[in-house]
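Case study: YdbS-like PH domain-containing protein.
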Amino acid sequence: MSLPRSTILAEPAWRPSPRAKLLWALENAVGVVVLAVVLGVWMFVDDRRGWQAVAGLALLALAVLGSVVVPLWRYAVHRWEVTDEAVYTRVGWLDQESRVAPISRVQTVDTERGPLERMLGLATVTVTTASSAGAVKISALDLPVAEQTVLRLTAIAAQHRGDAT
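Here is what the predicted structure looks like once written out:
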């Protein structure tokens, strides 16, 4: 017996924008730059160079991992989908999380755009639900896709007119 799609936790159909990889690489690079500044100050203050060389190599490895490997891996994992019944997401890279938020539980739908997202023409859609697990975030969408998603979710939620509790 085959179950209808709405009763199966299927893999969400859509990926974030291809520019998500650049966004995540830049976000990780900011952290690496902060660590590099700390290492530079340490090298200036402490004249023992042995540990600093090891820390520098570790920082280089972290930079490559955070700016190349992690964004590609996250892009391979991240998925999202909006249907008439629910919002589906899958996120993460080491620790992966799949979420399903029934439309009847949707309370608010918001769009967020940080400085890097604005620079890259991206946005994050946040779907707040009546759930103790917190909001469902669909990150790194092209701005027009995010705006269409908000409009679609608003229209679908209006048809379900529940109390979202």
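For the exam, be able to explain this: Residues 122 and 142 are 5 Å apart (CA to CA).
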